[in-house]
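Chapter summary example.
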Amino acid sequence: MAAPVRYLGLLSIIVCAAQANGLAQVAPSPLASAARAASPAGATPGTIAASDTLSVGGVGVVRFGMTPAQAGAAGLPLAESVHAPNATCYFAHPAAPAGVTFMVRDGKIVRADLAAPADLKTVDGFKRGDVEGNIAGFYAGTKGGVSDFPLSSNSDVYLLASPEFSAGESVPRLVYELTDKAGVVRIHAGWVPRHFGGCPKGK
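The structure predicted for these 203 residues follows.
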């Protein structure tokens, strides 16, 4: 019974020597390969890259209509806010950057919200701090047009939305919250109806 042990020991020595001389390569772990494939270039898992943009379709690897699990599989795991087990609406956020959150309704990601300190741009090149004239002028010349409304009757915040709110609540759009003093303070993308906010009570 000693011979097989001796042969196995010799085989181990040969394999180790081959690896040391670069003659043999260890196959990569399937899990490691999957993780590399799921991580978009320029971003570490769980974060949104500085070069990613907000659009009516999503942010980075996250597409509106995905489930949070699908977002994680695409390379952006999300941390869910505290919510009731049977809640149909809640918020979730990536590891970074701070200031980016996603609304989840009926199990699907439907909206992205951006506030300070996040400084991502929209697909059209606008970001926090930009002024009304530049944004309104740009979207006025697009097919979707632009709506300009006050956030509420007692607020100094107003909204620029494209496509216009008159196109319907189910139309995905970009919405900029602005003030005269600060310019753009928040940006919303995806499902943003005329009277939007947080999750409805009891949802």
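To summarize the output: The longest strand covers residues 183-190.
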